Amino acid sequence: MDAELRDLYQQVIMDHQRRPRNFGPMESPNRSAEGYNPLCGDRIRVELALDEGKRIRRAAFSGEGCAICTASASMMTEAVTGHTLEETNGIFDAFHRLLTEDDQDPAVAERLGKLAVFAGVREFPVRVKCATLAWHTLHAAIDNREDPVTTE
């Protein structure tokens, strides 16, 4: 990763960690799930308001997590709001590929927009779980699962 991209990565992550968007309990969510990363202690709750079960009208999260977990959850809520569940699954798949595959298709990063700053997490494999916890918890909320999600 070049120095310019690393600086952008750090700036975006720290901005969302310091001032997370859509943070706090949502009034009247119709889907929710809990997530836990025992490796570093991240605990989050993702809440959704779905329109007729097909489009995410609003997404929010609460809990405590490291900078990467908090920033990922914050940016995730922005990225999925207004999207259908099918579109959201596509965003999740692209995000997961960005963090876990070395051979990157430039179209994946382009599709993800600002979320592409998380490509730097690939350099720190132990942090991938921090970045993906919110996303796995989002999937559990969409599926209306009651058991907490864990990264282990």
How does this model look, in words?
The chain is an alpha+beta fold. The protein has one domain: Sufe protein. Chain: A. The chain has five helices and four strands; from the N terminus they run H-E-E-E-H-H-H-H-E. Helix 1 crosses helix 2 (67-80), helix 2 (67-80) runs parallel beside helix 5 (125-142) and helix 3 packs antiparallel against helix 5 (125-142). The longest helix is centred in the C-terminal third of the chain and has 18 residues, at 125-142. The radius of gyration is 14 Å and the shape is globular. The model has no long low-confidence stretch (mean pLDDT 91).
Write down the secondary-structure element order: HEEEHHHHE
Poorly predicted sequence stretches spanning 5 or more consecutive residues: none
CATH third-level topology: Sufe protein. Chain: A
Net shape: globular
Write the CATH architecture name.
Answer: Alpha-Beta Complex
How can the largest sheet be summarized?
4 strands, mixed
**Beta strands, count:** 4
